Amino acid sequence: MELTLLGTGAPEGLPRPDCHCAACASARGDRARAATALLVDGVLLLDLTPGAAFAAARAGHTLSGVGQVLLSHPHDGPALEHPAGLPASARVPDGRELALLSGHRVRAMAMDAPGTGYEVTAPGGERLLYLPPGGAPAGLDHPGPYDMVLADLHGRPDALARLRAVGAVTAATDLIAVHLGHDAPVGPELHRRLAAAGARAVPDGTTLVVGEYHAVPDVPRRTLVLGGARSGKSVEAERRLESFPGVVYVATGGSRSGDADWAARVAAHRERRPGAWRTEETCDLVPLLEADGPALLIDCLSLWLTDAMDQVAAWDDAKWAAGGSRALHERVDALAEAVRQTSRTVVAVSNEVGSGVVPATASGRRFRDELGRLNAAFAAECEQVLLVVAGQPLVLRG
Questions:
Q1: Rounded to two decimals, what is the model's pTM?
Q2: What is the pLDDT of residues 138-148, one digit of tens each?
Q3: Which of 75, 100, 181, 340 has the greatest CB tally within 10 Å of its CB?
C-alpha cells in the first residue's frame, strides 16, 4: 500500500496567515505544512482540503483515479474544495466497513472527540490507521497491530498510549505525526520529541510504503533529565512518557504535614499527569527497578539523596567520617547497578546544583558534592541525558 501525504499540518495549516508566533515565523520550506490529507494507492483520498489537486501534482501524483473521498474532521472542520471529476466526499458511520472496488477495506472508528478515525486494509493485507486532529480511539474491538499509524501525536499523545496498551502499536509500527500546527515545537526539537515516543514527522508530499521496513526511531530506555529550579525538567520528563500506557510515577518527596506550599507543588504535579498513571511514594527504588513492569518516572533523585543521607546520618560530621560516607556511596552504587540491570523504561529527574553559589554550610556543600556524584553515576547508565534550561531541553547524550 502506497501512501502520499498531500499535507501534514493542522486544519488551519502552518504557518497561519494571521499569526506571528515563533513557530509560524519559522515555518518555511519543508517546515510549512498544508492541512493533512492522505492519498492511498491513488484510489482513496482521506480528507479533502483546499489545493489537494495541486499538492498531488507537486508530489508526482494525480487525483484522476480517486474513487472514494472520506472525511475524518469534525463536521465544522476545515473548508472543502472539490476538484472537478472527484466523487463527492462522504463520512462512514462509526463501526461500519466500506469495501472499495480496488480491493481496499475501510472501517470507521469512533473517537472520543468529534471526528472519525479510519482503519484501511489493503488487498495485500497491510493495515494503516488514520486519526483526526484532537481525537483518540473511543474503543478498539480488533485493534491490530497496525503497520502504520498517522495521528495527532503531539496534541493527543494519550491516543498512542491507548493503542500501545492493546497491542495495536508495537515496536515495528511506523508512527507518523500529522495535524501539526503552531503549537508543536519547531525545527529539530519536533523530531527529537517525536523520536522519544518512537515516532517521526515527514514533509508534505512524502510518499510512504505501508508495511515496508523502516528504521523506527529507537525509544531511549533509560533517560536522565537534569535542570535547575523551575527549569521545566519535570514537564520534560512527563512529556517523554505521556504516550506510554500504565506509567508508574515514583514520587520520592513524600508528604510534609503542615507545609501548604509543598502540598500545592505536589497537587500541581498530580494534576498535570495523565489519569491512567499510578503513583508510588517511596525512596526504595532498587526493588522497583529490579521488577518487571511498565515505565517508571522517578521524580526526583535529589530528594532520594536527601532521604539516603538522612538514613546514614550524613549531616553529622563525626558519623559521616566514621562510615556515613561509605554507606552512602554503597547506596548510590546499588542504585546505579539497578539502573544498569533494569528491563524497564525509566525516566528520572534530578536537580543540577553545581553551577550555583557555593553553599555557606558544610552540610550544604556535602549535599551538592554528593548530588553531583549521584547524577554522574546515574547518567553513566542512561542512553540519553538531557539538561533543561528555561524550558528548553539540551541533549547531552543520545
A1: 0.87
A2: 987 766 799 99
A3: 181
Active-site residue 214, yes or no? Answer: no
d(CA 97, CA 120): 10
- Kindly write down the DSSP assignment for every residue of 240-292, as one continuous string: TTTTSTT-EEEESS---TT-HHHHHHHHHHHHHS-TT-EEEE-S-HHHHHHS-
The C-alpha R_g of the chain, in whole angstroms, comes to 25
- At a CB cut-off of 8 Å and minimum separation 6, what does 145 contact? 167, 168, 169, 170, 172, 173
Contact 267, 253 (CB under 8 A): no
List, for residues 292-351, the tens digit of each pLDDT value.
999 999 999 999 999 999 999 999 999 999 999 999 999 999 999 999 999 999 999 999
Place of cell 474532521: 73
C-alpha span between 15 and 294 (Å, rounded): 38
Cis? peptide before 145, omega within 30° of 0: yes
Whole-Å CA distances, 99 to 106, 123, 141: 6, 11, 19
